[in-house]
Design goal:
By secondary structure, the chain is an alpha+beta fold. It contains 5 helices and 7 strands. The protein folds into 2 domains: 87 residues; 89 residues, Immunoglobulin-like. The strands form 2 sheets. A 4-stranded antiparallel sheet has the order 4-3-6-7. Strands 1-2-5 form a 3-stranded antiparallel sheet, with no helix packed on it. 25% of the residues are buried.
């Protein structure tokens, strides 16, 4: 499981939110005994916040030059926050209490997702002979989907079915044998399911492929 860290990329933070987020970090880190030598200093960061906030107000109804100045000061503030966040991550490692005390947002924690629920599967005629279209319902946290299909009568084991791994929930299966009755089923993929070779399959769908 990947350890949580301070989020240090602020490129997607909205203009009006950035100054407040940075000010929150300054407040949380001021006098914080977990961070005795912030780099850059909190004084340097505070100056950048003040300059950016002023430029943001000026650019609201200002000229293109004012907007360019606001963007430049935003980049400077982002760079300082990136450096300070890197210092935070290096200083306290994966200690969540200390990380949270910095005022930085933390990365999401991803754990095992286990064996996922079975999706719903729809199979329809394709545009050409020997083709069918598939539509798999979305399963949250799935890494992809596996479609199994076989000519009827169904074989004894899944290993004898034809397998196709797909990353999208909609698509076309091609090169099927025309004028033949097939059975189809699908499952959602996860690291755990793949490792244990255990899957929850959709209800099988039978279709005569033209």
């Amino acid at each position: 499981m990947r350890a949580q860290k301070a989020v240090i990329n602020f490129s997607r933070v909205k203009d009006n939110t950035l100054a407040n987020a940075a000010q929150h970090i300054v407040i949380k880190m001021t006098g914080n005994t977990h961070f005795t030598a912030p780099n850059p200093s909190l004084e340097t960061l505070q100056i950048a916040i003040t300059l950016y906030a002023a430029a943001l107000i000026k650019a609201k109804d200002g000229s293109k030059v004012d907007t360019a100045d606001k963007n430049a000061k935003r980049r400077q503030l982002e760079a300082l926050l990136y450096s300070l966040g890197s210092y935070v991550n290096m200083t306290v490692g994966s200690d969540l209490v200390k990380l949270d005390s910095s005022g930085f947002n933390l990365t999401k924690m991803y754990g095992p997702v286990g064996i996922l629920d079975a999706p719903n599967l729809n199979i329809n005629y394709g545009n050409n002979s020997g083709e069918v279209s598939f539509n798999i319902s979305v399963v949250p946290k799935a890494r992809g989907y596996k479609i199994l299909f076989t000519i009827l009568p169904e074989p004894l084991t899944d290993a004898e079915w034809t397998t196709q791994i797909v990353s999208k929930t909609k698509g076309i299966l091609v090169h099927l044998k025309p004028q033949t009755r097939y059975r189809f089923k699908a499952t959602a993929l996860s690291a755990e399911a793949n490792k244990m070779n255990l899957y929850n399959f959709s209800t099988p769908v039978d279709l005569f492929v033209p």
